[in-house]
Write a sequence for this structure.
């Protein structure tokens, strides 16, 4: 039986197949199923900057209501229910007690600010690491790429300064120079980069002329984008590379490790096939390793990366030119 143990951000994992941040983490029975099926780790869905800011806004509103009624009373404090952010923290604490597998909390960040202090509170729940989800659509015409990248680095630095647990950065694929952004994030001390986040794309129904904003799960075809970037970056940065998007089978996972991924993260496959499907993925990966006579992941990790392959140009433009010109 091949050995699937690995480390990720310095954390020991029994398997390199990881549950990506998703609604699975909202259900304790599903989290337990993931652990039983052999998931190496589970990323809890993000605590969104908006949730924190909305809580702060509500608190401010309620405090000012109190101030109107009892302007003389300094000790007035409204009887607030737990805010969304607090509920999220409590949920993670409960989850921590229920399972043994490593857990990573996720913080969605689009701008730096005081709320970054929530990283510390997420750490206090007992999670093993923190994933920074920098999900934002760069739609402001006045803000150029350099400014956006500077904002990203500011957030990464602020969060890393806040916590002692390892921090991963989940990136969007829409940076002009992904290699440079990964290397800058690496220099700032991120222990992993997650390639890539997948944006929810709104659609338009031409019949009703309305917007459709529904969750469309990924297809295995979408894995080629992170696969290329993992292959290009393997061996060139210190930080671990987690491949995320389009991993739907054990063979997809095998491809990711051949490119150089340290782990794979999967969400759509588990949402469509059910969480126990992780064990099928693991069996498929083990079967493939047996067939190829690999005893452990390091026997083949990065073997097909740009640095190791016999055809280093395959991942770059040369191959594109060859194909377009119809040459072999
Ligand atoms: C229902 C659902 C909820 C998700 N919630 C989050 C989230 O809270 N934070 C996050 O970083 N990604 C979230 N994602 C994105 C996934 O973590 C993942 O990056 C994306 O689905 C691509 O992986 P896949 O092809 O395996 O689905 C969510 C995905 C799904 C399907």
């Amino acid at each position: 039986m091949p050995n699937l143990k690995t480390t990720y951000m310095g954390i020991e994992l029994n398997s390199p197949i990881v549950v990506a941040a998703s609604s699975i983490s909202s259900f304790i029975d599903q989290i337990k199923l993931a652990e039983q099926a052999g998931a190496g780790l589970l990323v809890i869905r993000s605590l969104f900057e908006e949730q924190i800011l909305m809580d702060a806004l509500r608190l401010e509103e309620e405090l000012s209501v109190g101030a109107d009624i009892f302007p003389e009373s300094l000790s007035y404090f409204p009887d607030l229910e737990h805010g969304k952010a607090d509920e999220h923290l409590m949920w993670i604490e409960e989850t921590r007690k229920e399972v043994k597998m490593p857990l990573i909390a996720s913080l969605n960040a689009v701008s730096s600010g005081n709320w970054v202090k929530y990283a510390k509170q997420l750490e206090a729940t007992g999670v093993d690491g923190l994933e920074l989800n920098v999900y934002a659509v760069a739609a402001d015409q006045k803000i150029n790429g350099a400014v956006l990248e500077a904002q990203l680095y500011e957030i990464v630095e602020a969060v890393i300064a806040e916590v002692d647990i390892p921090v991963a950065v989940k990136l969007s694929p829409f940076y002009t120079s992904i290699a440079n952004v990964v290397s800058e994030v690496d220099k700032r001390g991120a222990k992993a980069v997650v390639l890539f986040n997948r944006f929810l794309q709104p659609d338009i129904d031409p019949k009703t002329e309305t917007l459709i904003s529904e969750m469309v799960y990924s297809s295995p075809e979408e894995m080629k984008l992170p696969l290329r970037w993992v292959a290009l970056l393997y061996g060139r940065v210190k930080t671990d590379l987690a491949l995320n998007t389009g991993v739907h089978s054990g063979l997809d996972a095998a491809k990711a490790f051949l490119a150089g991924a340290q782990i794979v993260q999967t969400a759509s496959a588990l949402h469509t096939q059910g969480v126990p499907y992780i064990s099928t993925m693991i069996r498929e990966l083990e079967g493939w390793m047996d067939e190829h006579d690999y005893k452990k992941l390091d026997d083949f990790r990065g073997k097909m990366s740009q640095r190791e392959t016999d055809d280093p140009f395959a991942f770059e433009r040369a191959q594109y030119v060859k194909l377009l010109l119809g040459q072999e």
